[in-house]
Amino acid sequence: MMAMFMVASATAFAGDSDALKAILKAKDYAEAEALLKSGLSQLANDQEKAKAYNKLVDLAYAKYKKEDDIKTTNQMLQKNEAVDTEGMIKAGIAALNNAAECDKYDILPNAKGQVKPAFQKKNQDRLVMVFKGLYDNGCTFAEDSKNEDAFTCLDAYLKAAESPLFSVIPTVKNDPNRGIAAYYAGRAAMQLEKTGRAIELLKIGAKDTIQQVRDFSIDLLLYTMGKNRSTKEDSLKFINDMKDLYAQYPENEKVYSYMCDAMILNSQEDAVMKIGEEHLAKYPNSVLPHIYKAFLLQNQKKYAEAVEQWNLIPETQPNYVQFAYYRAVCKYNIAVEFNEANADARTGRLTPENETKFKDMLSKAQVDFEKCQQLDPDQGTVKWKYLLHNIYTQLGLADKAATLE
Question: What is the DSSP track for 6-68?
Answer without folding.
Answer: HHHHHHHT----HHHHHHHH--SHHHHHHHHHHHGGGS-SHHHHHHHHHHHHHHHHHHHHHHH
